[in-house]
Write a structure and sequence with these properties.
The complex is a heterodimer of chains A (about 110) and B (about 110). Chain A is mainly β and about 110 residues long. In chain A, strands 2, 5, 6, 9, 10 and 11 form a six-stranded mixed beta sheet that branches. Chain A has strands at about 5, 10-15, 20, 25, 35-40, 45-50, 60, 70-75, 85-90, 95-100, 100-105. The radius of gyration of chain A is 13 Å and the shape is globular. In chain A, strand 5 and strand 6 (about 45-50) form a beta hairpin. Chain B has about 110 residues and is mostly beta strands. Helix content of chain B is about 0%, strand content about 60%. Chain B has strands at about 5, 10-15, 20-25, 30-40, 40-50, 55, 65-70, 75-80, 85-95, 100, 105-110. In chain B, strand 7 (about 65-70) and strand 8 form a beta hairpin. The termini of chain B are far apart. The chains are: A mainly beta (about 110), B mainly beta (about 110). Chains A and B meet through strand 6 and strand 10 of A and strand 4, strand 5, strand 9 and strand 10 of B.
Protein backbone atom coordinates (compact mmCIF):
# COMPACT_ATOMS: atom_id res chain seq x y z
CA UNK A 1 0.00 0.00 0.00
CA UNK A 2 1.14 3.53 -0.70
CA UNK A 3 1.98 5.45 2.42
CA UNK A 4 3.73 8.68 3.33
CA UNK A 5 5.23 9.22 6.76
CA UNK A 6 6.25 12.56 8.20
CA UNK A 7 7.63 11.70 11.64
CA UNK A 8 7.67 15.22 13.08
CA UNK A 9 4.46 17.07 13.91
CA UNK A 10 6.38 20.20 14.78
CA UNK A 11 9.84 21.42 13.89
CA UNK A 12 11.05 24.56 15.59
CA UNK A 13 14.29 26.25 14.45
CA UNK A 14 15.93 29.61 14.81
CA UNK A 15 16.18 32.01 11.90
CA UNK A 16 19.31 31.30 9.92
CA UNK A 17 19.55 27.68 11.04
CA UNK A 18 19.34 24.79 8.56
CA UNK A 19 16.02 23.06 8.11
CA UNK A 20 15.26 19.45 7.23
CA UNK A 21 11.68 18.23 7.08
CA UNK A 22 11.60 14.46 6.89
CA UNK A 23 9.44 12.40 4.56
CA UNK A 24 9.50 8.66 4.00
CA UNK A 25 7.29 6.76 1.61
CA UNK A 26 6.30 3.25 0.69
CA UNK A 27 5.46 2.53 -2.92
CA UNK A 28 6.13 -0.46 -5.10
CA UNK A 29 6.59 1.38 -8.38
CA UNK A 30 8.58 4.40 -9.49
CA UNK A 31 7.44 7.18 -7.16
CA UNK A 32 6.46 10.73 -7.98
CA UNK A 33 6.78 12.90 -4.92
CA UNK A 34 5.78 16.42 -4.02
CA UNK A 35 5.97 18.93 -1.22
CA UNK A 36 2.92 21.13 -0.62
CA UNK A 37 2.91 24.11 1.74
CA UNK A 38 0.18 26.00 3.55
CA UNK A 39 1.06 29.41 4.96
CA UNK A 40 -1.13 30.97 7.61
CA UNK A 41 -4.54 31.96 6.18
CA UNK A 42 -3.55 30.86 2.69
CA UNK A 43 -4.58 27.89 0.62
CA UNK A 44 -2.49 24.79 0.19
CA UNK A 45 -0.12 25.10 -2.76
CA UNK A 46 2.59 23.14 -4.51
CA UNK A 47 6.11 23.95 -3.32
CA UNK A 48 8.13 21.55 -5.42
CA UNK A 49 8.13 18.18 -7.12
CA UNK A 50 11.03 15.76 -7.34
CA UNK A 51 10.88 15.42 -11.11
CA UNK A 52 11.71 19.08 -11.73
CA UNK A 53 14.77 18.96 -9.42
CA UNK A 54 14.51 22.70 -8.84
CA UNK A 55 14.98 24.93 -5.84
CA UNK A 56 11.94 26.92 -4.78
CA UNK A 57 12.28 29.66 -2.13
CA UNK A 58 15.64 28.13 -1.27
CA UNK A 59 14.15 24.69 -0.60
CA UNK A 60 15.37 21.52 -2.27
CA UNK A 61 14.36 17.90 -1.95
CA UNK A 62 16.18 14.85 -3.24
CA UNK A 63 14.55 11.54 -3.86
CA UNK A 64 16.53 8.72 -2.22
CA UNK A 65 15.10 5.46 -3.48
CA UNK A 66 17.40 3.36 -1.32
CA UNK A 67 16.14 5.00 1.86
CA UNK A 68 12.66 5.67 0.37
CA UNK A 69 12.95 9.26 1.50
CA UNK A 70 12.20 12.69 0.09
CA UNK A 71 13.39 15.11 2.76
CA UNK A 72 12.90 18.84 2.30
CA UNK A 73 15.92 20.99 3.07
CA UNK A 74 16.87 24.63 3.30
CA UNK A 75 20.30 25.83 4.44
CA UNK A 76 19.13 29.01 6.21
CA UNK A 77 15.60 29.26 7.56
CA UNK A 78 13.67 32.52 7.33
CA UNK A 79 10.70 33.61 9.42
CA UNK A 80 8.45 33.60 6.34
CA UNK A 81 9.11 29.87 5.95
CA UNK A 82 6.88 29.21 8.96
CA UNK A 83 4.02 27.09 7.62
CA UNK A 84 2.52 23.60 7.46
CA UNK A 85 4.36 21.33 5.06
CA UNK A 86 2.92 18.19 3.52
CA UNK A 87 4.80 15.51 1.63
CA UNK A 88 2.68 13.74 -1.00
CA UNK A 89 3.00 10.69 -3.24
CA UNK A 90 1.24 10.38 -6.60
CA UNK A 91 -1.05 7.46 -7.34
CA UNK A 92 -2.98 6.79 -10.52
CA UNK A 93 -5.08 9.48 -12.21
CA UNK A 94 -3.28 12.35 -10.45
CA UNK A 95 -4.51 11.22 -7.03
CA UNK A 96 -2.22 11.96 -4.14
CA UNK A 97 -1.64 10.36 -0.77
CA UNK A 98 -0.47 12.88 1.81
CA UNK A 99 1.57 12.61 4.95
CA UNK A 100 0.27 13.92 8.26
CA UNK A 101 2.14 17.19 7.81
CA UNK A 102 4.86 19.01 9.74
CA UNK A 103 4.49 22.48 11.19
CA UNK A 104 7.67 24.47 10.72
CA UNK A 105 8.13 27.31 13.15
CA UNK A 106 11.04 29.66 12.56
CA UNK A 107 11.90 31.72 15.61
CA UNK A 108 13.66 35.06 15.50
CA UNK B 1 -4.25 31.97 -12.75
CA UNK B 2 -6.21 28.92 -11.64
CA UNK B 3 -9.05 29.73 -9.35
CA UNK B 4 -10.77 27.15 -7.19
CA UNK B 5 -13.57 28.50 -5.06
CA UNK B 6 -15.62 26.89 -2.34
CA UNK B 7 -19.10 28.05 -1.44
CA UNK B 8 -18.54 28.68 2.26
CA UNK B 9 -15.53 29.33 4.50
CA UNK B 10 -17.39 28.34 7.67
CA UNK B 11 -20.46 26.18 8.11
CA UNK B 12 -22.28 25.04 11.23
CA UNK B 13 -24.84 22.25 10.94
CA UNK B 14 -26.77 19.98 13.25
CA UNK B 15 -26.48 16.21 13.49
CA UNK B 16 -28.66 14.53 10.90
CA UNK B 17 -28.84 17.48 8.51
CA UNK B 18 -28.04 17.08 4.84
CA UNK B 19 -25.04 19.23 3.94
CA UNK B 20 -23.87 20.40 0.55
CA UNK B 21 -20.35 21.68 -0.05
CA UNK B 22 -19.76 23.25 -3.44
CA UNK B 23 -16.54 23.64 -5.37
CA UNK B 24 -16.04 25.49 -8.64
CA UNK B 25 -12.92 25.75 -10.79
CA UNK B 26 -12.47 28.07 -13.75
CA UNK B 27 -9.66 26.38 -15.69
CA UNK B 28 -11.54 23.62 -17.51
CA UNK B 29 -9.80 20.95 -15.42
CA UNK B 30 -10.88 17.35 -15.88
CA UNK B 31 -9.98 16.06 -12.43
CA UNK B 32 -11.50 17.28 -9.20
CA UNK B 33 -11.00 16.04 -5.65
CA UNK B 34 -12.51 16.34 -2.21
CA UNK B 35 -10.30 15.93 0.86
CA UNK B 36 -10.77 16.35 4.55
CA UNK B 37 -7.91 17.84 6.53
CA UNK B 38 -7.51 16.85 10.17
CA UNK B 39 -4.63 17.58 12.57
CA UNK B 40 -2.30 14.64 12.84
CA UNK B 41 -3.93 12.88 9.88
CA UNK B 42 -3.06 15.20 7.02
CA UNK B 43 -5.29 15.24 3.96
CA UNK B 44 -7.39 12.20 3.19
CA UNK B 45 -9.12 11.71 -0.12
CA UNK B 46 -12.90 11.35 0.11
CA UNK B 47 -13.94 11.27 -3.54
CA UNK B 48 -12.47 11.96 -6.93
CA UNK B 49 -13.99 12.81 -10.30
CA UNK B 50 -12.17 12.53 -13.61
CA UNK B 51 -14.99 13.73 -15.85
CA UNK B 52 -18.57 14.94 -15.79
CA UNK B 53 -20.80 12.37 -14.08
CA UNK B 54 -17.75 10.17 -13.41
CA UNK B 55 -16.70 9.61 -9.82
CA UNK B 56 -14.52 7.29 -7.86
CA UNK B 57 -14.33 6.58 -4.15
CA UNK B 58 -11.26 7.76 -2.35
CA UNK B 59 -9.86 6.43 0.89
CA UNK B 60 -12.64 7.53 3.24
CA UNK B 61 -15.93 7.73 1.27
CA UNK B 62 -18.23 6.43 4.02
CA UNK B 63 -20.93 8.94 4.91
CA UNK B 64 -20.30 11.06 1.82
CA UNK B 65 -21.48 11.23 -1.76
CA UNK B 66 -20.60 13.54 -4.65
CA UNK B 67 -22.13 15.05 -7.73
CA UNK B 68 -20.52 16.36 -10.91
CA UNK B 69 -23.14 17.51 -13.36
CA UNK B 70 -20.93 20.17 -14.97
CA UNK B 71 -17.22 20.10 -15.60
CA UNK B 72 -16.47 23.13 -13.45
CA UNK B 73 -18.50 22.12 -10.40
CA UNK B 74 -17.97 19.27 -7.93
CA UNK B 75 -20.26 18.95 -4.95
CA UNK B 76 -19.70 17.00 -1.77
CA UNK B 77 -22.81 15.80 0.05
CA UNK B 78 -23.12 14.65 3.62
CA UNK B 79 -26.40 12.74 3.58
CA UNK B 80 -26.84 12.84 7.35
CA UNK B 81 -24.17 14.85 9.09
CA UNK B 82 -22.53 13.43 12.18
CA UNK B 83 -20.20 14.99 14.72
CA UNK B 84 -17.25 12.95 13.46
CA UNK B 85 -17.57 14.78 10.15
CA UNK B 86 -16.53 18.02 11.79
CA UNK B 87 -13.44 18.94 9.82
CA UNK B 88 -11.82 21.19 7.25
CA UNK B 89 -12.87 20.21 3.73
CA UNK B 90 -10.61 21.02 0.80
CA UNK B 91 -11.45 20.84 -2.87
CA UNK B 92 -8.74 20.57 -5.54
CA UNK B 93 -8.47 20.24 -9.31
CA UNK B 94 -5.86 19.22 -11.86
CA UNK B 95 -5.67 19.65 -15.60
CA UNK B 96 -2.96 18.59 -18.00
CA UNK B 97 -0.26 18.76 -15.33
CA UNK B 98 -0.41 16.86 -12.08
CA UNK B 99 -0.28 19.99 -9.93
CA UNK B 100 -3.26 20.09 -7.60
CA UNK B 101 -4.84 23.52 -7.18
CA UNK B 102 -6.67 23.88 -3.91
CA UNK B 103 -9.62 25.92 -2.80
CA UNK B 104 -9.54 27.94 0.43
CA UNK B 105 -11.35 25.24 2.40
CA UNK B 106 -14.65 24.98 4.25
CA UNK B 107 -14.52 24.52 8.00
CA UNK B 108 -17.57 22.44 8.88
CA UNK B 109 -18.76 22.05 12.44
CA UNK B 110 -21.48 19.51 13.16
CA UNK B 111 -23.21 20.01 16.50
Amino acid sequence: AQRVTQPEKLLSVFKGAPVELKCNYSYSGSPELFWYVQYSRQRLQLLLRHISRESIKGFTADLNKGETSFHLKKPFAQEEDSAMYYCALARDRNKLVFGAGTILRVKS
Amino acid sequence: DVKVTQSSRYLVKRTGEKVFLECVQDMDHENMFWYRQDPGLGLRLIYFSYDVKMKEKGDIPEGYSVSREKKERFSLILESASTNQTSMYLCASTGITDTQYFGPGTRLTVL
